[in-house]
Each structure stands twice: as structure tokens, then as C-alpha cells.
Amino acid sequence: MENCIFCKIINQQQHGYIISQNESVTAFLDIHPVTEGHVLVVPNEHVEKLHNMNNPETVTALINTLIDTANLLVKSNICTDYSIIQSNGKYAEQDINHLHFHIIPRHQHDEVVFKLDTNTNAALEDNLMKVFNDLIKN
Hints:
Elements (H helix, E strand, L loop, with lengths): L4 H6 L7 E4 L3 E5 L9 E5 L12 H20 L5 E5 L15 E6 L18 H12 L2
Antiparallel strand pairs: 1-2, 2-3, 3-5, 4-5
């Protein structure tokens, strides 16, 4: 995509702090970090959402790069703990329409909060059973 900032970073048409790159995946520092060492891991192919991934080699490369980048953050003493966040679509608060994973180093008292309150209606046994049945019949 010609207007995608991530595609421009991948193709080195836009400056980015690339920490690793291969033929399938690029990892670079987020320029709006939540914490020091916040990294984005993206497929080099422009794919908007996770469910649109259809190349098994790219899927494997994504997982391997997530693991390698987490190891790099730990080995570099940037963190020992981290969160991995990935959103798909406007209602999930995806800010750039290019599939990406955030690896966010975590520290005691870092003030980063990911609070997911339980939807008590969705947690009712009847609703859980309905969703379960909908999922297993597909």
C-alpha cells in the first residue's frame, strides 16, 4: 500500500528504527512508545487483519520474530516481563491498517494498564453455551 507508514518503513522509504528484518517480517521501535523498548512486529506483505493471513511461511516467521524480539529485549536487559498486544479493526482500536504486534516491556510501577472487565451478560452459562455451539459447528 503506497500510503501505509509501515510499508514505507519496511521498504526503507520512511525512517524507522529497524531492529530485525527478513524476507517476511520486520521489527522496529514504535515511535510512540508506551514504555522504553516498545517494538512493533509486522509482516512485510501488507495484510490488514490477522484472519487475512494466508501464507504459512509468513505466519511462522511472525511467531519466530515475536519470540526472537522478546528474547532480544530480555537479553538486552530492557525488561524481564512484557505484554504482546494485537488489534484487528476499527472497533478493536487498530490504529494503522497493517497487521502489527506490539511488544511492550513491562516494569514494576510502569503505570501501563490493560484492564479487561468481565461482561457479566456474556459470562452467563446460556450465552457461553450459545457461543460455544456457534464456534464448534463451523
